[in-house]
């Protein structure tokens, strides 16, 4: 694979399950550069890291814990979708 080959997200990963059927509320958009997507995942994980640190230092931390949970779910969906894009680019399918 040459460095000039652009690998994109495939748009298959979902997050924020809701209702009795656990339907996903959100999906990663297809066609985003994997490099840009991973940058966003890194930013989200930085927020998660800061929130979990702060929540460990305080007594009343429910809001920070839930915020960390949702942000980490978003970051995981991005990473899962980037992984699918990389597998597709290598000919392995999704």
What features would you describe in this structure?
The protein is mainly alpha-helical and 94 residues long. The chain has one domain. The chain is 55% helix and 11% strand. It has two helices and two strands, in the order ββαα. It has helices spanning 34-57, 62-89; strands spanning 14-18, 23-27. The protein has a two-stranded antiparallel ribbon with strand order 1-2. The two termini are 18 Å apart.
- Strand content of the residues, in percent? 5-15%
Structural class: mainly alpha
What is the helix tally? 2
Kindly give the count of domains: 1
Tell me the total number of β-strands: 2
- CA-to-CA gap between the ends? 18 Å
Q: Name the quaternary structure.
A: single chain
Rg, alpha carbons: 16 Å
> What is the helix/strand order?
EEHH
Q: What summary fits the major beta sheet? A: 2 strands, antiparallel
Helix content: 55-70%
Q: Give the overall form.
A: flat
Protein name: DUF3077 domain-containing protein
Pfam family, one: DUF3077
């Amino acid at each position: 694979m040459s460095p000039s080959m652009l690998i994109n997200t495939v748009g298959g990963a979902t997050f924020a399950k809701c209702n009795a059927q656990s339907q996903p509320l959100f999906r990663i958009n297809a066609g985003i550069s994997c490099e840009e997507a991973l940058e966003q995942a890194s930013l989200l994980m930085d927020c998660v890291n800061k929130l979990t640190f702060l929540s460990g230092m305080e007594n009343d931390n429910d809001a920070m814990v839930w915020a960390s949970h949702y942000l980490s779910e978003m970051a995981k969906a991005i990473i899962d979708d980037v992984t699918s894009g990389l597998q597709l680019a290598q000919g392995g399918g999704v």
